[in-house]
TrEMBL record:
<feature type="transmembrane region" description="Helical">
    <location>
        <begin position="144"/>
        <end position="177"/>
    </location>
</feature>
<feature type="transmembrane region" description="Helical">
    <location>
        <begin position="341"/>
        <end position="362"/>
    </location>
</feature>
<feature type="transmembrane region" description="Helical">
    <location>
        <begin position="216"/>
        <end position="238"/>
    </location>
</feature>
<feature type="transmembrane region" description="Helical">
    <location>
        <begin position="315"/>
        <end position="334"/>
    </location>
</feature>
<keyword id="KW-1133">Transmembrane helix</keyword>
<protein>
    <submittedName>
        <fullName>Cl-channel voltage-gated family protein</fullName>
    </submittedName>
</protein>
<dbReference type="InterPro" id="IPR001807">
    <property type="entry name" value="ClC"/>
</dbReference>
<dbReference type="InterPro" id="IPR014743">
    <property type="entry name" value="Cl-channel_core"/>
</dbReference>
<feature type="transmembrane region" description="Helical">
    <location>
        <begin position="7"/>
        <end position="38"/>
    </location>
</feature>
<keyword id="KW-0812">Transmembrane</keyword>
<dbReference type="GO" id="GO:0015108">
    <property type="term" value="F:chloride transmembrane transporter activity"/>
</dbReference>
<feature type="transmembrane region" description="Helical">
    <location>
        <begin position="183"/>
        <end position="204"/>
    </location>
</feature>
<dbReference type="InterPro" id="IPR050368">
    <property type="entry name" value="ClC-type_chloride_channel"/>
</dbReference>
<feature type="transmembrane region" description="Helical">
    <location>
        <begin position="50"/>
        <end position="70"/>
    </location>
</feature>
<feature type="transmembrane region" description="Helical">
    <location>
        <begin position="250"/>
        <end position="270"/>
    </location>
</feature>
<feature type="transmembrane region" description="Helical">
    <location>
        <begin position="291"/>
        <end position="309"/>
    </location>
</feature>
<keyword id="KW-0472">Membrane</keyword>
Length: 437
C-alpha cells in the first residue's frame, strides 16, 4: 500500500508532540524542584548578614568534592560536546553531580548562576527517555536536545528564547530546523509546569519610545560595540583566570580556601550587592535605579574569582547582571535612558558571550516587550560580531566566520580554532583603494 507523504509527516508530528510534551513535563517537574530549593536556600542564608564569612569553607568543600567524588561531572560544555559529537549519549548519571557544590556556593554568596544544573537535569531526562523508548541515535539526539532546551526555559522564564538558546549553543551560525518543533513544545510545556508549581520569573515590559531626533540609533550602535567589547573582555578574563588558577602549584582545596578568603575580603571592601544571583540590583538597573558606574566591573571580578576557583555554578545569571549594569553605566554616560540601555545590555552581553544573537533577541521580546526588541536585536548582533570567534562555551562548533576579512577553519570546536586565524586584508580598505583609482 502506498503511503502519502502527508500521512508520514502527520504521524511524525504526532510522535514528536507526544515525546516532547512528555519530556517537557518531566523536566518542568524536576527543574522546578531544583529552582525552588535553591531559592529557599538563598532566602534562608540571606537572613544572616555575615554568611559570606563561610565562603572559604564552602569553596574548600566544593573543591574537595570535585577532586575526589565528582570527577564524572557533566557540565554544560560537556553536554554540548555530547550532543554535537555523540548523539547526546551522556556518560554517568543524569542527576547533576555538583548540585551539592552549587548549593554550597550560592548559599554562602558565591557569584554564580543556576542554569547549568537545570540544563543537566533536562538533558539527563531526555537521555533516560531515549533509553526507555529505545530510539535510534538521531532521535536520541533530538530528545536530549529537547530536555536541554526545556531546562533553559525553566530558568529564563521565556520558552521560545530558552528553546532557541539551547539550539544556538550547539553551533555558531547554524540552526537545526528539524529540532525546532520538539524543542519549542518541550520548552513551552516545561515553562507551563514550572509556572503552575509556583516558580516566579522576571518580566518588566518597558514603556519605550525611540527618539531618533536625539541620536538614539547612533547611541544604540555605539552601545552594541561597547557590549561586544565587554563580552570579549569577560570571556578572556574567565578563561585566563581559570588557566592561571589551574597552574598554581598547591592542592586544589587550598586554592578554594584562598579564593573564598579573597572574595570575603572584597565583600567587606565593597558590599554584598555582588554576591549570589544579584537579582535585586539587576532588576533595579532595568527599572532605571541609580547604580554604581563600576558595578559591572565588580560583578565581573566576583564572578571570575568564583568560577575559576570553585569550578561550580553557571555563568549565565552573572552575565545578565553584568550586561544590565554595564547598560545602565552606558546610558548614563551617553545621556540616554539608563533603564532602556540596561535592558539592551542585559540581552546583548548574553549574545556576545554565548554566540546566541537570535535567542537573545527573542528573550528581549519575552521579557521587555516588543517595542524595544528591534533595537535590542541590532545591539545583540553587533555584540555577537564584536566578541569574535570565542565563547564561554568552548565546545560550540564554529560553522561560520564572522568577517570575510578573517580566514578561519570552520567545522571545529571553538577551543580548537583559537590559533587558526590568519591575517587578511580588510575588505573595506580594498574597496576604498579601488574607489580612489
Amino acid at each position: 500500500m502506498r503511503v502519502n507523504e502527508e500521512v508520514v509527516l502527520f504521524f511524525t508530528v504526532l510522535k514528536w508532540l507526544f515525546i516532547s510534551s512528555l519530556i517537557g513535563c518531566l523536566v518542568g517537574l524536576a527543574a522546578s524542584g531544583f529552582i525552588l530549593f535553591i531559592h529557599f536556600v538563598i532566602e534562608q542564608s540571606n537572613q544572616y548578614q555575615h554568611v559570606f564569612y563561610l565562603l572559604p569553607l564552602s569553596f574548600f568543600i566544593a573543591n574537595l568534592l570535585s577532586q575526589f567524588l565528582l570527577k564524572k561531572h557533566v557540565g554544560t560544555d560537556a553536554l554540548i560536546a555530547a550532543i554535537n559529537k555523540n548523539y547526546g549519549k551522556i556518560e554517568g548519571s543524569f542527576i547533576p553531580t555538583k548540585v551539592v557544590n552549587i548549593v554550597l556556593i550560592l548559599a554562602t554568596g558565591g557569584s554564580a548562576g543556576k542554569e547549568s544544573p537545570c540544563a543537566q537535569i533536562g538533558a539527563g531526562i531526555g537521555s533516560v527517555c531515549a533509553n526507555l523508548l529505545r530510539v535510534d541515535d538521531i532521535d536520541r539526539r533530538k530528545m536530549v536536545l529537547c530536555g536541554f532546551c526545556a531546562g533553559f526555559s525553566c530558568v529564563f522564564g521565556a520558552p521560545l528564547a530558552g528553546a532557541l538558546f539551547g539550539i544556538e549553543l550547539l553551533a555558531v551560525g547554524v540552526i537545526l530546523y528539524d529540532v525546532l518543533l520538539p524543542a519549542f513544545v518541550a520548552s513551552i510545556t516545561a515553562f507551563q509546569v514550572s509556572s503552575a508549581l509556583g516558580v516566579t520569573f522576571f518580566y518588566y515590559p518597558l514603556h519605550f519610545v525611540p527618539t531618533f531626533e536625539e541620536g538614539f540609533f547612533i547611541r544604540l550602535l555605539a552601545g552594541g560595540i561597547f557590549f561586544g567589547l565587554c563580552a570579549y573582555a569577560l570571556i578572556n578574563a574567565i578563561q585566563y583566570s581559570t588557566a592561571f588558577t589551574n597552574r598554581i602549584p598547591i592542592w586544589r582545596p587550598w586554592k578554594g580556601l584562598l579564593g573564598g578568603v579573597i572574595l570575603a575580603g572584597l565583600t567587606l571592601l565593597f558590599s554584598r550587592d555582588y554576591l549570589g544571583l544579584g537579582l535585586n540590583l539587576m532588576e533595579g538597573s532595568i527599572k532605571g535605579a541609580t547604580v554604581l558606574g563600576y558595578a559591572f566591573l565588580l560583578k565581573a571580578l566576583f564572578t571570575i574569582i568564583t568560577l575559576s576557583i570553585s569550578r561550580s555554578g553557571s555563568v549565565i545569571t552573572p552575565v545578565l547582571f553584568i550586561g544590565a549594569t554595564a547598560g545602565s553605566f552606558f546610558g548614563h554616560t551617553v545621556g540616554a535612558d539608563p533603564g532602556t540601555f540596561a535592558a539592551i545590555g542585559f540581552v546583548s552581553l548574553l549574545a556576545g558571550t554565548t554566540n546566541t544573537p537570535i535567542a537573545s533577541s527573542i528573550l528581549a521580546i519575552e521579557l521587555f516587550g516588543a517595542a524595544v526588541a528591534p533595537y535590542a536585536a541590532v545591539s545583540c548582533v553587533i555584540a555577537f560580531l564584536m566578541s569574535g570567534h570565542r565563547s564561554l562555551y568552548t565546545s560550540q562548533i564554529l560553522s561560520i566566520s564572522k568577517s570575510r576579512a578573517i580566514t578561519i577553519e570552520t567545522g571545529k570546536q571553538i577551543s580548537d580554532v583559537r590559533n587558526t586565524i590568519k591575517n587578511s586584508e580588510l575588505w573595506f580598505m580594498d574597496w576604498f583603494k579601488k574607489r580612489r583609482e
